[in-house]
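Predict the 3D structure for this chain.
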Amino acid sequence: MSRPETSCVASWCAEDEWCTVTCTAHLIGKKWHPVIVHRLLVCGPLGFNALKSEIDSISSTVLSNSLEDLEENGLVNRSIVSEKPFRVEYSLTEGGESLRPVIEAMDAWGDEYLTESEDRS
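Done. Predicted structure below.
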């Protein structure tokens, strides 16, 4: 997996063993980033509107900014599918695909946590 040119390692944690966790959190720690990666893992490549309909509570601006951030960090690929009418498709890069076990673990943990929370109510 190739790394993007920008470094995700914060200078304040560079010498600490947990800095790799900070790096991961930096890449997918924003509210919608793991959701976008999850939808692309499940659905495969999607156009902007199709991806937005998969995440119906996200605004177009937030989706656009999140996709741009994920692309800059080497996790999402943006491809122009057609010029007329102009259409763009988003897919995961090799780096984005490598997040599958992380996203699946988040999904499984969240399912278990929500089930336990419902049982406590």
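The helical segments are 19-28, 33-43, 48-54, 60-72, 94-97, 100-120.
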